[in-house]
Amino acid sequence: MSARSEYGSARAVETRGAEEPVVDLRSDTVTKPTAEMRQAMAEAEVGDDVYREDPTVNRLEEQAAAILDKEAALFVPSGTMGNQIAVKVHTEPGQEVICEERSHIFNFEMGMMAAFSGCQARTVATKNGIMTWDQIREKLRPGIYYYSRSGLITVENTHNMAGGTVYSLEQMQEICDRAHETGIPVHLDGARIFNAAIYLGRPVRELAAPFDSVMFCLSKGLGAPVGSLLAGRRAFIDKALRVRKMLGGGMRQAGVLAAAGLIALEKHPARLAEDHRNARFLAESLRKVPGIAVDLRNVQTNIVIFDVSGAGLSASEFSARLKALGVLINPINERQMRIVTHSDADYAACRRAAEAVTAVAVGP
Q1: Which of the chain's termini has less CB crowding within 10 Å, N or C?
Q2: Class of domain 35-267
Q3: Are 154 and 98 in contact (CB under 8 A)?
C-alpha cells in the first residue's frame, strides 16, 4: 500500500467522528420526504387511480398541467417512464430520435427507445450539452424512402451530464419552431425544469410553452420521495395513459405518493435557489484546490462536475477516499466526478464536502 493510501485510511478514522452524519451529494434523488410530506401521505384521500378515481392524484395532475400551462398531465412512477411514454406516443417503429450525446434519455434509460418503441437514437455532440437548431438540422434525415425518418427531437433542460447547464428561452423556441415547420414533435426532458426556471428567472410555463410534451421529476430537487409528471395536449395524455398501463405504471391508491408530490410542487420550487448557491460555493472552493479542475461557466444550477486527474487519482479512487471521510460523491468516468446539491445538504454540509475534497487532493 502506498503512503498516500495509508494516509487516506488513517485520516478517515481520525477525521470522521462517530456522530458526524454522512454528507450525501451523489444526487438530488437522495432527499428524504419532509415531516409535512409524511403527514400528508398518512392523511391522503385515495382511490383507485387505474380507474382514475384517486382524488389526490387527480389534483396533482391538474396542478402540474396548470403550472406548465398544458391541457393535461399524467402522474408516473419515474422520469424514465415519463420520457419513454413520450417516445412511444410521438414516434413509429423504425424512426430516429434526435438527442444530445450525453442525454439521459440516450445513456441512462436502458436502451428503451429501441427495446420498447423500436426507435434508434441519432445523437448530437455539444460542448456544454446545449444543442442548436443548426446542429439538429444536420442530423435530420432526407426524405428518401430507404432512410429511416426523424420522428422526434428531445431536449434536456437542465442538462445533467453537462453539469446542469440551461437552454435559454430563445434557444428552445427556435428548436421547436423549426422542428414544427418540418413536422417533427419536440419532447422536453425537464427532469430539473424548475432549476432551469430559477436560473432564467422565468415562470416554468414559459420554458414548457413551445414543447409538444414535457416531463419533470418531483423526486429530485423538489424533494418528493417518488414520482414524475408527463404533460401535453389532452389527446397526447389520453394515449400516454394507455402506454403507462402497458409499462405497469398503473399504481392504484397512488394518492399516498401524490400527496407528497403536491407539497413538493407547491412549496419547494422557491428554495431551489439555495441549492444553486451551494453548488456555486462548492465549485468556487474546489477550483482553488491543487489538482482539481472545474469549469465555472457550466455551473449554472445545482450540479458541479469536476476533474480530479490532476490529483494523481482516478475518480473511483477519489470517490472511495471521500467515502472514508463521510462524504459521498460519485465518479462519472475515470477523470470526473459529479456533485448534486439538494435540500438535505445545507451550506455546512457542503463546506465539509469541500474540506474533504481538499484533504484527498492535497494529501499528507
Answers
A1: N
A2: alpha beta
A3: yes
Residues carrying CATH 3.40.640.10, the chain: 35-267
| CATH of the structural domain 3-25+271-362, one choice from 3.30.40.10, 3.40.50.1450, 3.30.470.20, 3.90.1150.10 | 3.90.1150.10
At 364, the pLDDT band (50, 70, 90 cuts) reads: low
User: Whole-angstrom Cα distance, residue 128 to residue 298?
Assistant: 7
Classify residue 354 by its DSSP letter: H
Distances (CA, A) of 83 to 2, 8, 94, 201, 269: 46, 41, 18, 25, 21
Question: Which carries the bigger pLDDT value, residue 10 or residue 77?
Answer: 77
Nearest-angstrom CA–CA distance, 21 and 38: 22
Q: What is the largest CA-CA distance in the chain?
A: 68
pLDDT at 243 over 70: yes
Please give the grid coordinates belonging to residue 182.
418540418
Closest CA to 54 of 242, 250, 189, 315: 250
Closest CA to 57 of 206, 243, 226: 226
Do 244 and 76 touch, CB atoms closer than 8 A? yes
Kindly report, as residue ranges, where domains of CATH 3.90.1150.10 are found in the chain: 3-25+271-362
DSSP 110: T
